[in-house]
């Protein structure tokens, strides 16, 4: 078994479904492998405290907010 956390495999389909949905929006930043790895790392690091489904949801927010440049420290005009 190559999965280090088999208890989290139930999150794979919801995660992929979210990515498919997110990519359908026009002018949406492409989700990169870095984004996906960050999301998975986030889930693995907080699921013990908040639960796996809450970690999945908050990880989705992480991807969305990063995609629109929240917290980057640059102005909206510069981000364009």
Write the layout of secondary structure elements.
Blueprint (H helix, E strand, L loop, with lengths): L11 H12 L9 H18 L1 H16 L8 H4 L1
Helix pairs in contact: 2-3
Uncertain stretches: none
Please give the oligomerization state of what you see: single chain
| Approximate helicity band | 55-70%
Largest sheet: none
Overall 3D form: globular
Q: Give the end-to-end Cα distance, rounded to a whole number of Å.
A: 43 Å
Number of separate strands? 0
**Secondary structure category:** mainly alpha
Rg for CA atoms: 14 Å
Average pLDDT reading: 78
- Assess the beta-strand content as a share of residues: under 5%
- Order of H and E elements: HHHH
What does this structure look like?
- With 80 residues, the chain is an all-alpha fold.
- It has helices at residues 12-23, 33-50, 52-67, 76-79.
- The longest helix is centred in the middle third of the chain and has 18 residues, at 33-50.
- The radius of gyration is 14 Å and the shape is globular.
- The model has no long low-confidence stretch (mean pLDDT 78).
Compact summary:
With 80 residues, the chain is mostly helical. 62% of the residues lie in helices and 0% in strands.
Keywords:
single chain; 80 residues; mainly alpha; 4 helices; globular
